[in-house]
Amino acid sequence: MIKEIAIDGLHIHDIASFYEEINRVFMSDEDWKIGNSLDAFNDLLYGGFGAMKDCEKVRFVWKNVERIQEALGYKATKAYYEDKLQQGALFNKEYFREKLIALENGIGETYFEMLKSIVAAHKNIDLVLV
C-alpha cells in the first residue's frame, strides 16, 4: 500500500518555513521535531517515525511547487552558504565556498534542487511536483 504525504508550497517562504511545513506534516504525532538541516530531512525519509512510520512506499506530493522552488532558489541558497561560511570552524568552509562559487557561476544546485536529490535517493518514495 502506498501512503500519500503532501506539503504545500503556500506555507513555504524560506528554508526555515520549509522545515516548519515538514514538521507539521511529518511529525504531528511525535513529541519532537526534526532540525533545520539537509541531514535531518534525509534521516526523516528513511522512515521509522512520524508520518513515515511503518511505510514501505510513499507518494510525496509537493503542492504549489513553483512557490517552493522560488522560496528555496538562488537567493535562499546563497544566504544558506554564506551563513555556513560565517559560522567558524563548525563547517568545512572550503566545501561551502566551492558550493557558493558554483551557485554564483550558474552550475550549482539550489536548496530546492538539493532537496529533490535527497528525495530521489530514496527509492521507496515517488516525488510528485504539482
TrEMBL record:
It holds the Pfam family Barstar. SUPFAM superfamilies: Barstar-related. It comes from the Bacteria. Coiled coil: none annotated. Residues 4-75 form the Barstar (barnase inhibitor) domain. Belongs to the barstar family. This is Ribonuclease inhibitor. It comes from Olivibacter oleidegradans.
